[in-house]
Amino acid sequence: MWDERVPLHTGSAFYDVAGFKAGRNDLRGFEADEVGDVTGKRLLHLQCHIGTDTLSWARRGAVVTGLDFSGPAVEAARALASDVGEEQARFVEADVYDAPAALRGETFDIVYTGFGALCWLPDLTQWARTAAELVAPGGFLYLAEFHPVAMCLGEDGSAFAEDYFARGPFTYDEPGSYADMSAPTRHNRTVEWQHPLGDVISAVTAAGLRLEFLHEHDFTLFKYLDGMVRARDTSGSRGGEGTVYRLPEGRPRIPMVYSLRASKEVSA
User: Fold this and answer.
1) I need a surface site. Which of 73, 107, 115, 137 has the fewest CB within 10 A?
2) Is residue 66 part of a domain?
3) For the chain, what is the HEC assignment?
């Protein structure tokens, strides 16, 4: 499924690869503030897809490695890195659970996971252990993800339509892609899992990382609830360059996105 969607995504208006090549940064404004200065830092992006977020960190000065299980996605990321002059960016093909072996025990100052990654993982405990193994002493894991509360709401956003504690697996057979819902596709079966916020935090801390913060945000990246309004990303001290979606003024706000940072202590 993911292999088939790589050319769909690289050619889509959603990813706007031409705009990225022209200099756009795809990180959300709050991410830059919460991660901090990445100049010269070794950053690993797990489940990096075609590499636009990975290379956005490179544009901020990080020495980046992206990892994804889709060969075509890794090839697209490498080509994009070459096109934008980020020749030092490295992309590795491997399943996320196999990352420590694929990277031969290398560790990183920052391990980053972005939006829409955790729902594809059946074993959150093993994912957290894997991420913790990849974090160098004194470094940290940073996660920005869709909030599970928002993902359980009905289309009108006024009530829960899904069971928050139903973890899955959930199997779907739907054509198209979030980048182009009308695109004709052949490989449409997917299996997803839902991870309540408590499960995420418990897995991260049980893996030996110290939670520094958990932040919740009142906007998201897709228009999936009725009445959502499009807005410019103004999160963080510098804001972002992308578009976000919020509920209109007058409606109760809900958490739609969350971020967390968890560090690995330096051994005595």
Assistant:
1) 137
2) yes
3) CHHHHHHHHHCCCCCCHHHHHCCCCCCCHHHHHHHCCCCCCEEEEECCCCCHHHHHHHHCCCEEEEEECCHHHHHHHHHHHHHCCCCCCEEEECCHHHHHHHCCCCCEEEEEECCCCHHHCCCHHHHHHHHHHHEEEEEEEEEEEECHHHHCECCCCCCECCCCCCCCCEEEECCCECCECCCCCCCCEEEECCCCHHHHHHHHHHCCCEEEEEEEECCECCCCCCCCEEEECCCCCCCCCCEEEECCCCCCCCCCEEEEEEECCCCC
Q: Which residues form the domain of 109?
A: 2-263
Q: What is the CATH number of the domain that holds 80?
A: 3.40.50.150
Q: Provide the domain count of the chain.
A: 1
**Does 124 score more than 70 pLDDT?**
yes
Instruction: Note whether residue 268 is domain-resident.
Output: no
Question: pTM for this structure?
Answer: 0.96
pLDDT digits over 60-96, tens only?
Answer: 999 999 999 999 999 999 999 999 999 899 999 999 9
Does 113 have pLDDT greater than 60? yes
Q: Span 232-255, mean pLDDT?
A: 86
